[in-house]
Design goal:
Helix content: 25-40%
Number of helices: 12
Largest sheet: 8 strands, mixed
């Protein structure tokens, strides 16, 4: 770590949820407290050890960790889900015609998670009138950068080429994801610029935009006990990099050039308040704003990492679903 980068002031300018009544603040914060109190404190150390062992070539424990997070959520009423390929699950409102589509990328530090872990979110968003395509991208350390990124770009190309296969409008393709999935969404938008691919929007939940210990106050303050430890993120970063530099723009979008960032579609970021990734996300959003990129940012007070994919913060989850629906519907 290289000293704490301070983040001070300016939150309201990013659309932080302020001006709400105290019950809203209490709701987000209290449900996060309850969520953290119920977390097994041995989970993160086991995951970290499994990721580090796999990075060294021993995969048994990591396979077990992945299997523990692989149950599909029940579908909401009037939503269908279809495996359109071995790695893609398409959610649609029953009987709907051509729809905007969100390619959704699960979190898990590029090393765990699956289309099952984001299934509750994808189903809930489809119930709001959006086609959602969840992707099982290749995981590190077996498949380090750029394998997952390439898989995301291939899916976007496929949708553009065969939109009828997905029942979608090829002019309204959005990319989204949580944590490492948010990273992949932003990175894919940058990578696809070389092909003049136009995306409708990006929707990122507490995204990784700098794949290293970033030295911010949040990295220090929330390093343990807040749903995702800094040591977990360190292990994931090492697994994903696979010898590449963290400063490559398609690994850490915060290092992309001004020119490339200006070409991004509208960016919608929903952060987590008690999260090691909070401040790097804020720095990224501030840079986009200075460059004139259309950007929306919210930080529900008291929230912690994982509210999109792990049950326990229902109000934050509901806000995440509405946030995406608003972004894609605009």
């Amino acid at each position: 770590m290289h000293g704490h980068r301070p983040i001070s002031g300016g939150f309201s300018a990013f659309g932080r949820i302020t001006g709400k009544d105290s019950s809203m603040v209490k709701t987000y914060g209290q449900e996060a407290d309850d969520f953290l109190a119920k977390r097994d404190p041995s989970v993160q150390p086991r995951q970290i050890a499994a990721i580090r062992a796999a990075t060294g070539g021993q995969f048994e424990d990591l396979i077990a960790v992945r299997s523990a997070r692989n149950a599909l959520a029940p579908l909401p009423e009037n939503v269908t889900a279809e495996m359109v390929s071995p790695t893609m699950r398409l959610y649609r409102p029953t009987g709907a015609g051509k729809l905007p589509i969100l390619v959704y990328l699960h979190g898990g530090g590029w090393v765990i998670g699956s289309i099952a872990s984001c299934s509750a979110f994808c189903g809930a968003l489809a119930a709001r009138g959006v086609a959602v395509l969840a992707l099982d991208y290749p995981l590190a350390p077996e498949h380090p950068y750029p394998a997952a990124l390439n898989a995301v770009c291939d899916v976007v190309r496929d949708i553009r080429t065969r939109p009828d296969r997905f029942g979608c409008d090829p002019a309204r393709i959005s990319l989204g994801g949580d944590s490492s999935g948010g990273n992949l969404a932003i990175a894919a938008a940058l990578a696809l610029q070389e092909e003049d691919v136009s995306l409708h929007s990006l929707v990122a939940y507490y995204p990784v935009v700098e794949a290293r210990a970033d030295g911010t106050q949040a990295w220090h303050d929330f390093a343990t006990g807040c749903g995702m430890d800094a040591a977990f993120m360190d292990a994931c970063n090492a697994a994903y990099l696979g010898g590449h530099s963290y400063a490559e723009p398609l690994i850490s979008p915060i290092y992309a050039s001004d020119e490339r960032l200006r070409r991004l579609p509208p960016v919608h970021v929903l952060g987590a308040d008690r999260d090691v990734l909070r401040d790097q996300g804020i720095l990224f959003v501030r840079r986009l704003q200075k460059l004139g990129v259309p950007v929306r940012y919210e930080l529900p007070p008291g929230t912690t990492h994982l509210f999109v994919t792990v049950p326990g913060q229902p109000q934050a989850f509901a806000r995440a679903v509405a946030f995406a629906a608003e972004a894609i519907g605009e």
